[in-house]
Design goal:
alpha+beta, 10-stranded mixed β-sheet, 3-stranded antiparallel β-sheet
């Protein structure tokens, strides 16, 4: 009897056949082994209580692999478990290199024979709930929704940030620039959870504050927050914590941010050289366009405005925008001073959009504007302590808007952070952190293993061409063999990838 309109049908094959639809995913297990990811989780994350059942490392690795495989919720662990071939590799990787005593100890964690390679959704939820602090939740709700409150991370949640620090140390050992550019940016993650609070755009959301290592394409640090917490709230504290995560190979830091980072305590910290490790930190941060700033910009002579350029087909062309130095001292810094500690620059760009006649004063625009000689301009400000030429500095500061925001899109669309699993704040914070770990694992794979042609690829492309490959996992002489079709174009490349991973510089444990 036909099953459908076309002349094919499905048959269910019994027994253990070792088939996998994720023949490329084991290279991420290989990389995580070289970087000591399991050991790092074991050192820093102590969420599991007692000596029975899944270890913290097994839980974390399963959820990171779920992210890379394309799963977006805890229930997708069932689909990962159904991939028998990959589960064989995952099961073997958990004990690879362990002495017999350690393997026996892991076996004794189970009262019965362990049959699963990945935890059940129920077990995963119990693991994630260990990251939630009920006392902090009580304080959060007692304060009330309008008040900004950041729940303190418990020991398990802090452990995930330390695991990420170990990943960054591994990336540093492979060779990085001595100067690191750190971009600060918050992102809104819209949710329908009743426990989430309303953000400034009037929908329920969480608003993690993220610090991005631009040269390496890595998430340096993140702090998961409620939607009602302003992006600039306690930004200096989180920035200081993020700097401690940079590997020892980094000797100098430059910082970039939007107006959320325009806080004078942050600017003074960077300029004064108060950081115990990096000293004076150069920065370029978007400044608030206040009425006082507009007044200072209006006093700039027409001859002091310089055209902005961009490269088009190998030659420079004017963009229509202009920049100028502005003599401006904000009230917070004045206190008898006639000059500012920092440079202020303004950019103006003629508005191409026409306003509706008679409604000019009623239209609410998402950017500040000013009029010059009958022309209306968009106006933006930048504050810096750097001595670069103005146009070069403004272009460099604008680069912040590219990759750091793309990383937010990757976390919220390509990885499992697309869907928050719980009403509990700590559970969602751990889920976000695990997606960050998956993101950084993939970023290290692209930059330090796969090569230049892969660095710009999104996970969608990597899954299609490298991860989601059909294969069969066989066991021979106590070794696992992942067999691919000879027509698979990535077959030889996967062998080369494993050679590159084996040649990476490991980081000493601890």
């Amino acid at each position: 009897m036909p099953q459908g309109a076309l002349p094919f049908q499905y048959e269910i094959e019994g027994g253990s056949n070792g088939l996998t639809a994720l023949a490329g995913l084991p290279i991420y297990l290989d990389l995580s082994s070289v970087m000591g990811l399991r050991e790092s989780v074991g050192r820093h994350v102590h969420a599991r209580q007692g000596g029975q059942g899944w270890t913290d490392a097994e839980m974390a690795m399963s959820l990171v692999m779920l992210n890379l495989a394309g799963g977006d919720c805890v229930d997708d662990l069932r689909t990962l478990e159904a991939d028998e071939g990959f589960c064989r590799v995952l099961r073997r990787s958990a004990i690879a290199g362990l002495p017999r005593a350690r393997r026996r100890a892991m076996e004794r964690r189970w009262r019965k024979e362990k049959r699963r390679a990945v935890p059940s959704p129920t077990s995963a939820f119990r693991f994630l709930e260990r990251f939630h602090d009920k006392e902090q939740e009580r304080l959060r709700r007692a304060l009330g929704a309008p008040k900004a409150f950041i729940p303190a991370a418990n020991a398990a949640l802090r452990g995930l940030s330390l695991v990420n620090r170990d990943l960054l140390r591994f990336a540093g050992a492979q060779g990085v620039d001595a100067t690191a550019t750190v971009d600060a940016d918050a992102t809104l993650k819209a949710v329908t959870k009743k426990g989430a609070l309303f953000c400034y755009k009037n929908f329920r959301a969480y608003q993690p504050l993220n610090f991005w290592w631009a040269e390496q394409g890595l998430m340096l640090h993140t702090e998961f927050r409620d939607g009602n917490v302003p992006a600039g709230h306690e930004q200096l504290r989180v920035f200081q914590e993020a700097l401690t995560h940079l590997p020892s190979q980094v000797k100098k830091v430059r910082a970039r941010s939007d107006t959320a980072g325009y806080q004078h305590e942050l600017l003074k910290y960077c300029e004064s050289g108060a950081d115990p490790r990096f000293g004076r930190i150069e920065f370029a941060i978007s400044s608030d366009v206040t009425q006082e700033f507009k007044k200072a910009v209006a006093e700039v002579a027409q001859t002091d405005w310089h055209p902005m350029h961009r490269m088009v087909r190998g030659r420079l062309e004017e963009t229509g925008a202009e920049w100028a130095e502005v003599c401006y001292v904000p009230n917070a810094l004045s206190q008898g001073k006639k000059t500012s500690e920092y440079r202020y620059l303004a950019t103006r760009e003629p508005m191409l959009e026409r306003e509706l006649p008679g409604l000019e004063s009623q239209q609410e625009l998402p950017f500040p504007t000013m009029n010059w000689e009958g022309t209306r301009y968009k106006v933006f400000g930048t504050v810096t302590n750097m001595d670069w030429e103005g146009e070069k500095l403004i272009h460099w500061q604008h680069e912040r808007c590219g990759k750091s925001e793309e990383a937010h899109a990757v976390l919220k669309n390509d990885l499992a952070a697309a869907r928050m699993p719980s009403q509990l704040f700590g559970v969602n914070a751990a889920w976000w952190w695990l997606s960050v770990l998956a993101h950084n694992l993939n970023a290290i794979m692209k930059r330090h293993v796969l090569g230049v042609g892969w660095v710009e690829k999104r996970l969608k492309a990597i899954r299609f061409s490298l991860i989601n490959l059909p294969g069969r996992v066989l066991e021979k002489a106590r070794r696992l063999i992942i067999r691919l079709s000879e027509r698979q174009p990535m077959a030889n490349f996967l062998v080369e990838v494993r050679r590159r991973i084996a040649a990476l510089v490991p980081v000493p444990s601890g």
